[in-house]
Amino acid sequence: MKIIHEASSKDKNSHVTLCKYRYLNNVSHFHSDHELVFLHKGTSTVTVNGERFELSPEDCVFIHSNDIHYIQSSPETEISVVKADEQYFDRLFRNRRFSSPLLSSDYGAKKMFDEIQKEKGINDEFSASATDGIVKRFLVDAMRGETLCRNEYSEKGTTGANELYVRINEKLIRDYATVSFDEAAEYMHFSRPYFSKVFSNLFGMSFTKYLNTVRIAFAVEKLRAGGMSVTEVSASCGFNTIRNFNRVFKSMTGYSPNSLPEDYVFIFNLDKDSGLDPTLNCTELLG
Question: What angle do CA 55, 157, 267 make, to 5 degrees?
């Protein structure tokens, strides 16, 4: 089971998707698509491979394929996100990447969004190709204006941060019911203080909070499957007391274990075929 990889939502005939959000917040994740984040209004922090970027309106952040990232924003924030197919657009990058995820200019991003929306409205046999061309034009302008560096990870399809993230996460998913902070730090051959710092940078939250989130995700699965009492689910998911389980469960889901709706979906999707939807429930999709 994986809860780290976001499945692509692009139409099979398209190399690009555009979505606009209010109050966009998500958990740490990665995906194969490149991603452009543009802040229309409000305040937002985008963390890429452990490096934090505080965005002002009209700032752009470009997140390369398989970079670990997450977004934190305030309630009034509006953000547009373009996802671009890695294989199609890597013909431009040719084993290069932007030296900094935070671009020095918006390179006409708002015009690009308007043109993509126009093509979405037209939606004829030429729209997919037209949209690809719009994004390609933006990327060419950005590549001309920004400092590029060699993408040392393009052949491996991973970054150093990505490798750490995957190793830590696989350990937590495999041993979620029994693993402790000390055991995880020892597994990574890190000192406790260093492991705590690395974990917070990569996952955007403390070890305890993330592990509890994983445990609750499995608990939701088990409760929906039936055949186990709440006490049995609690113990099998690593909670020492039923009281602690009930408290953590309600704080994360809004329900007690006994009152969980049948159609409830937790923020972590544990279906290995559909991947992870990392977007938190507070987020509103505007279009």
Answer: 55
**Looking at domain 160-259, what is its CATH homologous superfamily?**
Homeodomain-like (1.10.10.60)
> What is the Cα–Cα distance from 49 to 156, expressed in whole angstroms?
16
Distance from C-alpha of 287 to C-alpha of 277, rounded to nearest angstrom: 17
* 97/146 Cα distance (integer angstroms): 10
**pLDDT by residue (tens digit) across 185-237?**
999 999 999 999 999 888 888 999 999 989 998 999 999 999 999 999 999 99
Look up the pTM and report it: 0.72
Cβ–Cβ < 8 Å for 148, 98:
yes
Domain 16-154+280-285 matching CATH 3.60.70.12: the answer reads: no
Q: What is the pLDDT of residues 45-96, one digit of tens each?
A: 999 988 999 999 999 999 999 888 999 999 999 999 999 999 899 999 998 9
Domain spans in the chain, listed from the N-terminal domain onward: 16-154+280-285, 160-259
3-state helix, strand, coil in the chain (%, to 5): 40, 20, 40
19-51 pLDDT, tens digit per residue, is 999 999 988 888 889 999 999 999 999 999 889
